[in-house]
Design brief:
It is a single chain. The chain has 6 helices and 11 strands. With 244 residues, it is of the alpha/beta class. The strands form 2 sheets. Strands 3-2-1-4-5-11-10 form a 7-stranded mixed beta sheet, with helices on both faces. Strands 6-7-8-9 form a 4-stranded antiparallel beta sheet, with no helix packed on it. Helix 5 packs across helix 6. It is globular and about 55 Å long. The two termini are 30 Å apart.
């Protein structure tokens, strides 16, 4: 999440995040990220910054081969990440404005986290901040939000977690308002000894064409391109390389 005040997704609902996203193969995704970095010349150990790192699931795998650092705006998500990664540097920060005292060979920003930004200006500021934290020749790997030309609005999605003491069901419905997707999420959360509660969350995603995203990345000083084979179907990856 990017704002200084993360939404309920990454606040009070953070404790359910990993359970509801257990379908993601973080190991395979991390291997794909390493493959991309190697293809650009970042072979062997590469210093790696994961922005919007969440609960640290990618860092959990990347740290086995690389010195890693994580940044996220949500203190609740980082609290979970610190339990998973007790010796890894994890920093609270907004992706537009964080400042670290080091540069990296790779900066990644995944799971369409840039979709939470409000404006194209925010996107440009974010890409410039990624470039600022890259070594010469370093690579930014960014997973974009949905392609505006390929939206499937009106779809209904359901995910469920059936644990021994906690049950969570999340149902979502998507619409569009101008250049934003608006997704209504309804959570039913049942916990042993606490009963059942209903939480409603509205998530907004900024829609920007792939060509415009590449323009913004290039304007930030990154030689940019889009690759269709990314981590999740239909999203691809933005790749930006900083001049040497």
């Amino acid at each position: 999440m990017t704002s200084s005040k993360p939404s309920q997704f990454y606040g009070e609902l953070a404790k359910y995040y990993d359970d509801l996203n257990a379908w993601k193969d973080y190991r395979a995704e991390s291997e794909r990220l390493e493959e991309i970095a190697r293809s650009i010349g970042r072979r062997g150990r590469a210093t790696w910054l994961d922005v919007a790192c969440g609960t640290g699931r990618h860092l959990e795998h990347l740290r086995r081969k690389h010195p890693v650092v994580g940044v996220d705006a949500s203190r609740e998500m980082l609290r979970i990440a610190r339990r998973r990664l007790p010796k890894i540097r994890l920093v609270v920060g907004d992706m537009r404005t964080f400042r670290l005292d080091q540069r990296f060979d790779v900066v990644s920003c995944l799971f369409s986290a840039i979709g939470h930004l409000r404006t194209e200006r925010d996107l440009g500021t974010t890409f410039a901040n990624f470039a600022r934290h890259l070594n010469p020749g370093g690579v930014a790997i960014v997973e974009p939000w949905l392609d505006p030309t390929k939206l499937r609005l009106g779809s209904v999605y359901l995910r469920a977690y059936d644990g021994p003491f906690t049950k969570v069901v999340r149902c979502a419905f998507s619409t569009r308002r101008g250049n934003r997707t608006v997704i209504q999420y309804h959570y039913l959360i049942a916990e042993h000894g606490r009963g059942i509660r209903h939480v409603k969350v509205t998530d907004v995603g900024l829609l920007v064409s792939r060509s415009r995203l590449l323009e913004l990345m290039s304007s930030a000083g990154l030689e940019s391109r889009f690759i269709a084979r990314g981590l999740m179907p239909g999203r691809g990856l933005l790749i930006g390389v900083k001049d040497r």
